[in-house]
Amino acid sequence: MDPILKTDNLTIRFGGHTAVSGVNFEMPARQLKSIIGPNGAGKTTFFNLLSGELKPSAGEVYFKGQPITGMSAVARTRLGLGRSFQITNVFPNLTVLENVRLAVQSKEKIRYQMFRHFVRYQYLMDEAEKLIEMVLLQGREYAIASQLSHGEKRKLEIAMLLALDTEVLLLDEPTAGMSLEEVPAILDVIRKIKQTGEKTILLIEHKMDMILDLSDSIMVLFNGKLLADASPKEIMDNEMVQNAYLGGLYDENAVES
Ligand SMILES: Nc1ncnc2c1ncn2[C@@H]1O[C@H](COP(=O)(O)OP(=O)(O)OP(=O)(O)O)[C@@H](O)[C@H]1O
């Protein structure tokens, strides 16, 4: 099957520094691929190039075979490439339910008047409730967003991303800054989304056990270059990756090409 997302020689330079360098990557539809690599390897920059927040110095991004390199982030979201924070923002003074409902509404582009269009309003609420359940926030519908724990906030962001109903989800370190107790819940949320079989998920993560648990494939970025892209087992057995990790991939002094 043709990849849903593909890059060809994707490159971006910031002054003299090449943050992403000639990356050729293919994302099969309805799979989960993790991106790993040391700090500064170019993972977030690669995401920004996929989502349209950055324009490459060279190379192309394709979505379902169509070049989208010149498209804005919003246009890419409409097409089916979603990243949290792109269109919707969490309103801190609103409840979980109101935030998710507004995100559903922004996708539906519905302008409604609450009482005259009760059926529509009910539809938005039902959709929001479904998403809240999907991210395991049921029971917290009426909590004010600003009062959520860090882990709950990340769940809310995922629900709002899901509300956009994009085929591809770009998740940038969903467990960042979380306490150890909060991590399994996010793992459950991502597993649940994956199990629907409807989404293609690209995940940047540092937590190796989580990556191995969830991923169909793993790609390794190192100094902006694609070092490997293969099954979790192949990645773990890959000598180059092993050397890179064990031999100081995370040692800043070793990160020179
Ligand atoms: N807007 C920018 N201007 C200049 N340099 C940048 C810019 N964005 C990223 N860089 C540089 O590009 C390199 C890659 O950064 P990036 O944030 O993509 O790495 P990363 O793999 O996501 O790291 P981390 O795991 O720490 O998030 C870094 O050296 C960074 O300093």
TrEMBL record:
For this protein, the record's Pfam families field holds: ABC_tran
Q: Which UniProt keywords apply?
A: ATP-binding, Nucleotide-binding, Transport
Q: Which domain of life is it from?
A: Bacteria
Q: Does the keyword Magnesium apply?
A: no
Residue intervals of the ABC transporter domain: 5-248
Q: Which InterPro entries match?
A: AAA+_ATPase, ABC_AA/LPS_Transport, ABC_transporter-like_ATP-bd, ABC_transporter-like_CS, P-loop_NTPase
One MF term in the entry's GO annotations: ATP binding
Q: State if Nucleotide-binding is listed as a keyword.
A: yes
Protein name (database record)? ABC transporter ATP-binding protein
